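ARCHIVE CARD
CATEGORY: sequence design from structure
SOURCE FIELD: tokenized fold
FIELD CONTENT:
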């Protein structure tokens, strides 16, 4: 699948443009554009494709995508992904050649731009901090204050060590392996549609046209995690949504998320979040009550 060039319809005089998307599905397929993109997921879960990286994403996911790096966020039409709600900041790369960014105090931001050529996923406390900053930037109406907030966002991104580079070293757009992408996409789509049911390794291996052993090696090499790890990420992501909504008991939501018993669900959830499901639900509810999440 060759990435599609996307021409963004913003004012050419603006170095930074903001786009808010709130739809049942992300509508832009595998694509690239010259603008640097900061993508913040407010609501929705699914699969994130960046270069040769394929990972699950969930609420709060925030990434920086470099100029002309192919990418796609894809949610699936099922109970796990009912909405695609995000803020996107599109930054013209020429911004970093302007006088403001030529000050010695700003030179370290060039390293951030270089890292973004592989795609950057922010983690931990930095992910939360950046989510708040992006929302503040979008809501800010004063031009000078907006620029100050953008510089703060870039400063946090440039100085944190809580990040992961997404695409492999030496990745280039012209080297996109169509067969690899489509094969992984087929597997990921199947997982997203069937995660609440038992999924046998033999089933997904056959989708990729591989034996189970070959599929396990293939999946881990390209996804940088095992098939079971990825499947559990999808299931935990759905469980988080149910916990936030607060409509189900722990026993019920564990079954709806694809876990065969409550003890296994709690163990997997704690391994993923360092919290018990009840703690996660309580913390999220408290943050909503205090108005810290919009």
């Amino acid at each position: 699948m060759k990435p599609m060039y996307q021409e963004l319809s913003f004012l050419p005089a603006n170095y930074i443009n903001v786009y808010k998307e709130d739809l049942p599905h992300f509508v832009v397929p595998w694509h690239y554009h010259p603008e640097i993109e900061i993508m913040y997921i407010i609501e929705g879960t699914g699969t994130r494709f960046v270069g040769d990286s394929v990972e699950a994403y969930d609420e709060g996911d925030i990434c920086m995508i470099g100029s002309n790096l192919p990418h796609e966020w894809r949610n699936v039409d099922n109970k796990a992904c009912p909405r695609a709600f995000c803020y996107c900041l599109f930054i013209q790369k020429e911004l970093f050649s302007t006088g403001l960014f030529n000050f010695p105090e700003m030179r370290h931001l060039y390293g951030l731009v270089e890292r973004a050529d592989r795609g950057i996923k922010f983690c931990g406390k930095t992910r939360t901090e950046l989510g708040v900053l992006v929302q503040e930037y979008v809501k800010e109406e004063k031009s000078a204050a907006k620029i100050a907030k953008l510089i703060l966002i870039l400063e946090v991104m440039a100085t944190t060590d809580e990040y992961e580079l997404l695409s492999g070293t030496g990745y280039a757009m012209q080297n996109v392996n169509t067969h690899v992408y489509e094969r992984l996409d087929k597997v990921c789509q199947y997982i997203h549609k069937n995660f609440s049911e038992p999924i046998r390794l033999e089933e997904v291996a056959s989708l990729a046209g591989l034996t189970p052993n070959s599929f396990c090696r293939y999946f881990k090499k390209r996804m940088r995690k095992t098939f079971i790890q990825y499947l559990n990420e999808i299931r935990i992501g759905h469980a988080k949504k149910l916990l936030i909504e607060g409509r189900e008991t722990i026993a019920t939501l564990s079954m709806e998320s694809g876990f065969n018993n409550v003890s296994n669900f709690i163990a997997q959830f704690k391994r993923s979040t360092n919290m018990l499901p009840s703690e996660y639900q309580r913390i999220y509810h408290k943050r909503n009550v205090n108005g810290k999440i919009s």
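CARD ANNOTATION: The mean pLDDT is 83. The chain has ten helices and eleven strands.
SHELF: design records, drawer C
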